[in-house]
Each structure stands twice: as structure tokens, then as C-alpha cells.
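This part of the workshop introduces the protein records we will be handling. As an example, a complete record with its sequence and its C-alpha cells follows.
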Amino acid sequence: MKIRLRKIKFSELVKFIIAINIILIGLGATTTVIFQIPNIDYIAFFVMIIVTVYLILSRKVYKTAVIRFQYAPYMQFCIAWFIFGVVSVLINHNDWNIRQPIYLSSVIAISISCVIYATCIDLRTFRFYCNAFLISTLINYVISANELIFGNHITEPRGYFQLISTYAGFSNQNNYATFLIYSTIIAYILVKFTEKNNKKYKYFFIFIFVVDFLLSVATGSVTGITAHLLIAAVFLLKHFINVKGTSVFAVSTIIIFAYLLFVIVIIAAAPSWKIIRIIYLNNVVPAFRKSFIFGLGPGGNVIFNNGWVHNLSFELLFDYGILVFIFYIYMLMKIIGFYNKYNCFELVFCFLLMPIIWISSSSALSLHFTWSFMTLIAVFPMLYRKKSGDITICL
């Protein structure tokens, strides 16, 4: 009997390698501890970059995608982040032992974003990458079960609460809770838009949501628990209320400008509120005022606060300056506008939650799974348009 093997296209191999990286990113320190291969995540990353660059250079469809995607708000943000990041590094090169790993982490985050964006040219690839993200979620479930039932942790617990809690391969419970929020949103998008007629996926989403919520409770993360409850409420509300796009846009605009006003107040006045997260920000503000154009350089918030400020938006602002921050806010507004255009107010709400969720995580800017998640969320509106209730490719 002859066994016929299907010829694998090079583009499929590249996407498989990218999916492997998405899984590795979603596992934190798990792969390094389990496989005992030094720098396995870096090896996989560099292989991904090399094969993706070759794919783009050798295939016209991917060259065209890159040319088109460079005008997308998310890609503009990534390009600005990289360019102004280089300038910021050249200006701020003291304390390099602190800055070097943080800068490298930012370069990896930007690279991951560009690679996913450049190769995600259709909904089939989008589903493939989302499923890779959810595979890492399922693996983390197994690790969490091992932690909660048998008390076996991937990395050494720091304190009693970590000993009795779950954080999988992440550095702390808040980071894990943030990842669980992302996986809930990814699962919802798969069910709602790409697998809407597949009952198995609907049950799968319910399973993902319930387990994500229970594990968020197990982490003890107040932000994680609250975010899951709010997201559940909005997802249910979507089924009963038809909210007009103009209303969503108006509310979104007010919330974004309120957040910008909050940023301005922090930078201009440094209010002496007795809130630990605000205190972290105030520690960095005086130095930032002297270098607000290009920022304090990678890790600047860590150096002047003697630790992370626990806020992705401010980490980006403090480290890379007002120019990158403008691209960042523009990107968020445009993505919210895309989802509002397609009457996805529940996903608009999820995006508006992000600045609050990012307060929970420590070293939020360096969490690579945040950027694989953000890229998938950003690229999706570029891949479809609604017409008579159907989803079609719009590249």
C-alpha cells in the first residue's frame, strides 16, 4: 500500500513556525523549564524571522500585503515604536545592564507583531494563529491543575500566596490573569465571526470562558476577576440589545479623551493621591518632563521608579516618548473605530478595558503575549467586511 504524503508549501511551513512561536510566547517560562534547552524561545524567534523575511521576498502576495499593511494604524504604531525607540536608545544609553534586556524585549514584540501581520493575509491564517494562541491556553490549564491540585509549580513560588495559587509559567498571578482575559476574547472572536455556525466552537468558547474565569479567581487577581465579569455582561448584553454605532462611537470617544485627560493630569500636576499605582507614576514624572519627546529610553520607568510602574500605556510613554504615544493612541482609536463600524460594540468595550487591564500586569510592555494578542485583534478588521450578514475577505 502506497502512502501519499501531501506536499507542504513553504508558506504553510512559515505559518506553522509562527504558530509555534505564538504558543511558546503564551507559555512563559514553561518551555525553558520543561525542555531544558537554553534560549529555546530565542532560537524559535530567530528561525521565524529568517523564514518570514524569505517568504515575503520570494512571494508576491506577501510583498503586496506588506505594502498595504504598512498603512494600517497598528503597523504604523509598530514602525514608529521601532524608529523612535532607536533614537531613544541613542540618547539614553546609561544603565545599559537594565536597558538592554528591556529594549531587546521591545524589539522582539515589534518583530512578532510585524511577522503575524505580514503573513495573516486571510481568515484561514487568522483562525490558525488564534488556535495556536488557544493551544497555549489549554496547556496552561494543565499546568494550573497541577499547581492547584498537587502544588507543583513550574517556577519557584515567591511567597505563601503564590505557593497556594496558580500562575503557570508566568512571573506572577496578574500576568497570568491578563493572559486569561486575552484568551477569552480570542475564543469569542473565533466563535462569533469565523465559526459562527459551528456548535462545537460555541461549547468550546463556554468552556474557555468558564475555566478562564475560575483560574482568574484562583490567581486572586481583582482586575482579572472584574474584567471577566464585565466582559461576560457585555457579551450577554449584545444578544438582547441592538446598540447603535453612533452611540458606541460617542461613548468611546468620551472615554478615550477622559483617559488622555488623566494622562495629562499625571504628567502636568503629579497629583499626590495615596494610590500605589499613582505613586509609581509620580516617581518617574519629574525625569520624564525633561525628556518627553523621545522619552527616558527603554527601561527608563524601571530606573526612575526602582521597578515597573505597572501600566503599559505609561511604560510606553515614559520609555519612548510622546511621539510613540501619539501613534499608540491613534492606533487604539482606529481599531475601536473598525470594530464599531461592524457593530461589534462588545469588542469595542473589551478594547476600552485594556488600559485598566494593563494596570494589573507588572512589566506589561515586555509581555510578548500581549503583542501577539494585539496583532490578531488589530489585523482581523483588515480581513473582512460585512455584507448581508456574510464575512468576506477584503484585502
Observations:
- Residues 123 and 362 are 33 Å apart (CA to CA).
- The longest helix spans residues 312-341.
